[in-house]
Amino acid sequence: VMRTDQRRYFGHPDLVMFIQRLSSQVSNLGMGTVLIGDMGMPAGGRFNGGHASHQTGLDVDIFLQLPKTRWTSAQLLRPQALDLVSRDGKHV
């Protein structure tokens, strides 16, 4: 889980089981480590900005950047975005 200092790692048991199954499958395929971003707040509720769908504990941000090695604590606290579109916006 990334950005653990923000305490956005709570979710419905079904969501947690989904994440565990996904992580196991990705690991078994040798694809790297699944990175989990925001899930939900401890008792549900609003985030400071956006993420309304996360209030029920059924939504999660899953990063498609699958590192081959485990990230350090510092990397997990301050993840770097992965650009999927070129600067000119013409290429993916």
UniProtKB/TrEMBL annotation:
Keyword vocabulary terms for this entry: Hydrolase, Metal-binding, Metalloprotease, Periplasm, Protease, Signal, Zinc
GO cellular component, one term: outer membrane-bounded periplasmic space
InterPro entries per record: Peptidase_M74, Zn_M74/Hedgehog-like
Keyword Repeat: no
A single GO BP: proteolysis
GO molecular function: metal ion binding; metallopeptidase activity; serine-type endopeptidase activity
Name this protein carries in UniProt: Penicillin-insensitive murein endopeptidase
